[in-house]
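In this section we walk through a basic example: taking a raw amino acid sequence and producing a predicted 3D structure, encoded as discrete structure tokens. The instruction is simple. Fold the sequence below.
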Amino acid sequence: MNEIGKFLIMVGALLVIVGALQWSGFGKSWLGRLLGDIHYTKGDFSIHFPIVTCLLLSAVLTFILWLFRKRGSIFCGFNVSREAISSLLVTGADCS
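The resulting token sequence is shown next.
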């Protein structure tokens, strides 16, 4: 199996895991309803802006991406060119 195929399998497995978590209802009771999320209702008009949820998700994703950059790319073990990795939206890894 070539390296791009391995990458696509990993992305597919990640999507299956995320989909299973959403399907099971993980975070349904609290995600988007954190203290500080804005919800305004007046008559037939309703607006919901989950600002604290967005900040929390941003912090978690930033930390995860920082870990990948610090440890190097997860693709360093594969024999994939830097251009191929960049085309798959993974950039900045030092695989020396």
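Looking at the output, two observations stand out. The CA atoms of residues 82 and 88 lie 10 Å apart. Residues 34-88 form one domain. In the next section we compare this with other chains.
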